[in-house]
């Protein structure tokens, strides 16, 4: 019953998002349009995708029971202290579509220093680290046994530009930031609580710069996450936010004078928005 209520609320939020979402045909700002073309609308299959999904298929057959040490909000679907690897891969690991989106986003941003909060089994880390092999990436995971699986998965994929650090975010985050020196790319997906999300952002903010991007996962998953997303959208240093429903993106481009908040969806889901019927709220940001 709990999951029915959860997904019913999520469906309602998606319908509200869908009604207001724009497509690439509504965008005139060069940066936003280029993002839509090169990231959101790109459907090419890259070299790493099949290798990563092969690892996932193995995890989905793994019946091993591991103890979950969750320091965050926990899973809204399964909060058991012991779960099979199969269960984690099915319900907690990033989906193929979302993983491939992150891969394309990293290719678009071309970061040198990357940080992920919430490694899980390492599927999302694999997608992101594979996109730019020259980047230095740190991923922090609170659960020791899950982190161990992530290290094995990344080793099997031959991904060497990422370091998994295990521990509580509050303790590991300052160390990771000091090691990286600056942040070009930050992915937050480890603690779906409003206070925690805002705290991690505030801790990382001094290391962000005009070309950085912050990705927040599951921004519509709960009331708390929606509140956190709205606060981050309106932060004084955020110049552009893009709501993709499953992800929220924050940009800090100093050349953009007016703050802009966009909701974007792939054009194929709104075929009637093909540019022949101009929107009254088209985006004109830089």
Within CATH, the superfamily carries the name: Vaccinia Virus protein VP39
CATH fold-level topology: Rossmann fold
Shape verdict: globular
Number of domains: 1
Q: Distance between the terminal alpha carbons, to the nearest Å?
A: 46 Å
Q: Quick one: biggest sheet?
A: 8 strands, mixed
Q: Could you report the average pLDDT, rounded to the nearest whole number?
A: 91
Helix percent reads: 40-55%
Write up this protein.
The chain is an alpha/beta fold and 286 residues long. It is 42% helix and 15% strand. It is built from ten helices and ten strands. It has helices spanning 2-20, 30-40, 47-59, 85-91, 96-109, 123-131, 144-156, 169-180, 194-204, 223-233; strands at residues 65-67, 82-84, 113-117, 136-141, 162-166, 185-188, 213-217, 240-243, 247-251, 260-263. It starts with a helix and ends in a 23-residue tail after the last strand. The strands form two sheets. It has an eight-stranded mixed beta sheet, sandwiched between helices. A two-stranded antiparallel sheet has the order 1-2.
In terms of topology, how is this protein built?
Elements: H1 2-20, H2 30-40, H3 47-59, E1 65-67, E2 82-84, H4 85-91, H5 96-109, E3 113-117, H6 123-131, E4 136-141, H7 144-156, E5 162-166, H8 169-180, E6 185-188, H9 194-204, E7 213-217, H10 223-233, E8 240-243, E9 247-251, E10 260-263
Parallel strand pairs: 3-4, 3-6, 4-5, 6-7, 8-10
Antiparallel strand pairs: 1-2, 7-9, 8-9
